[in-house]
């Protein structure tokens, strides 16, 4: 039986960074495979994790529990057979419901055991995301066994208030509001299961047929695809870092709709750079990861407009 951990969290919460931390400190010396599910076609996080010497299986064409759910079911079986890992970490798209991810993983409960459902919550955007994307955001909190607060720097005064709001959604989970490398490894590995996840496990015992589970899981994600959209761009121009920065900022400033997440790995004539964006925070830093794509995720965004904004003259 292979241990499986689900790393959930809304767009830009810090899931990929958490996986890096867990790989180096919690599961050091163990064979780890990550099933990574970018929303869109870029595979940015997969490229970044691969550069950290973690085996990654990337599923980029949709949410795990939508049209990909059958493939996801097969992928777990293939991974267990081919790699025989000690640990599987599942990083679903930030716009996915944790409850649906749990249901998909339970379809292979003969091969894997869900040890922890971990949810990362961005302390800076709790109210905004709960108000605007409650169905997805609250579900990720409700089904989390362990909830980790991210982006604590400079926000210590908001911790108690945020903890109270999380407790309104989930009274059972263990909540850690500390820097992740300070949390004991055992907290990540094991702990009490919240009642909501127990109920899903009991349901899986009553409905063992895959076809039934596929039907139950897929429909909520059709709605997710109606709410959120992604635009992926390939960067083939030889840009300086400053030119790249200006183009990205131009897209963020003038694009229709709301860009909730931007990420990418871009090769410039000054080297390779990792791009991260969430509202209020823009990062462009050196990287060794391979790739040359940028992905924007949001609501009401338009592919042709974003492409035109990025490729046009400033």
Automatic annotation (TrEMBL):
Keywords: Chaperone, Hydrolase, Nucleotide-binding
Key word Electron transport present: no
Keyword Nucleotide-binding appears in the UniProt entry: yes
Domain of life of the source: Bacteria
Catalytic activity: GTP + H2O = GDP + phosphate + H(+)
Domain CobW C-terminal, residue spans: 228-312
Pfam families: cobW, CobW_C
InterPro entries: CobW-likC_sf, CobW-like_C, CobW/HypB/UreG_nucleotide-bd, P-loop_NTPase, Zinc-reg_GTPase_activator
Domain (CobW/HypB/UreG nucleotide-binding) ranges: 5-174
Family, per entry: Belongs to the SIMIBI class G3E GTPase family. ZNG1 subfamily.
Name the record gives this protein: GTP-binding protein
Protein source organism: Lacrimispora xylanolytica
